[in-house]
Prior knowledge:
Elements: E1 11-13, E2 16-18, H1 29-46, H2 51-76, H3 84-103, H4 118-141, H5 150-168, E3 179-180, H6 182-192, H7 197-217, H8 220-230, H9 232-237, H10 242-268, E4 270-271, H11 278-291, H12 296-326, H13 341-355, H14 366-369
Antiparallel strand pairs: 1-2, 3-4
Amino acid sequence: MAIRNDPGATIRAGGTLATSGFDLRSLSVPAILLIAFVGLLAACMTGALNLYMQTVLMFMGINIIMSTSLNLINGNMGEFACGHAAFMAVGAYVSSLVTVILFTQSKFGAPLLPPELTLLAFPLALLIGSLAAALVGLLIAIPSFKTRGDYLAIITIAALYIVKSTIENIDAIGGARGFMGMRRVTNAMEQTLDLPWMVIWIFIGTVFTVWIIRRYVSSTYGKGVMAICQDEVAAEIMSVNTNHIKLVTFMLSSGLAGLAGGLFAHVLGYINPGSFTILKSTEALVMVYLGGMGSISGAVMSAMLFTLLLESLRFIIPWIDQLLHLIHVLPAGYEISQVWKWVLIPLLLILLMQFRPEGIMGNRELSDIFPRLRKFYKFK
């Protein structure tokens, strides 16, 4: 019997697909992430990604952390929280205080540790900021035991303004003027080892966030979260400890928002209470509802699209301003400024609720649309 010599032929044995060449499907999730990490690092080191592109990618990662963490409450659990920026602010200030006090000369005195230890202590500082944000989330979770919907939204908005007002009235951390010094911390990391460390930490933080949320919603706790979303009373009747699950879910979501805040502070090198207003929470809400309630894939995709939209408006708005002045639509002396993007973002949320309330993905994941991706959703 003759056997055809075909280099591209595939042999199916026992239901397994084997090829003579490289097959991406044979790679595990850690291997794919490692390849992506090495490629990103090489692009940053060689200059293929300039500082502006790196900054956009870093904000994209921070937005992914924000959207997926809020999606845990608003999407998976079916609650309606509007004050996610409060937890981001707590994480930003606490982690910044830890790193500045430990490694820089500041108004708090001489540095407590040598700058060579920043690489080891920085993730610990982020962890401390996340734990502080989780504790604030605990205070929000307790009133949520007896409130849902609009009432919880009011509570979370009130918590946001409480946190913001508290920060504004603490002069030791700059008050309304803001707090700085984090740039010296990031510089110390780069001087210790010349790598784009903030890109690295944000990549790790983003992967960790998506992984931990995926594992959580797939666990026994996650099934309880889904039960609360469907019918909280029925879940209680079926012996689900709804208060305990709410507590854990709020603390996890708040802690991850605090992680986003710590990374955000060290990317900018300066923060003030004005960075964590209701507009920041609105951004997170837009990303959650744009992606789809309860969909991790949708939250990731919407965060990426939203970041690109914000950056594109930075260039589109001046172009529109010139065009409208050219055709004499706008009066002389009037200029369309970047403030208009804060009109367009809430408008996007309104249009989304009118024409596609389920968002991009609805409550589905990419593996529901492309079944071959299911192996990548195991996260084992």
